[in-house]
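User: Hey, my collaborator sent me this sequence without any context and asked if I could get a structure. I don't really work with proteins. Can you help?
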Amino acid sequence: MFKVDGPHIVNERGKVLDVDSAGAKLSGNYDEENRNTVAYAKNTKIHQQWDIIYADEYPAEPKKGELNKDFGLYVERPFYIVSQLPSNRYLDLVNNRDMVIKTPNGRNTQIWYFHQDS
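Assistant: No problem. I've predicted the 3D structure and written it out in structure-token form, which is a compact way to encode the shape of the chain:
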């Protein structure tokens, strides 16, 4: 389970969603197509910072109870998770298990939902 905490996406153990540095330490390039993500200790670098961009137009001001303040997300409203690295790649689910960053492509694997019961 993850929650949004400012620009970070944090799991229950306090680790944050991080664009994997494997191989990037030598090249200095975290911002590559299909680069894996991992849960890692928070270090405030840009490859650990994300934006939540909602995919739909919200028709009116939110009503009480629609924003889950514990997790920082609107309930059952589609959104994208966008890296703050220069290319602004989207978090994408590959093979139903791996999360990578990819250029926006319109596929459902880049759309995320928050369901507060789960």
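In plain terms: Residues 24-27 form the longest helix (4 residues). You can pass these tokens on to your collaborator as they are.
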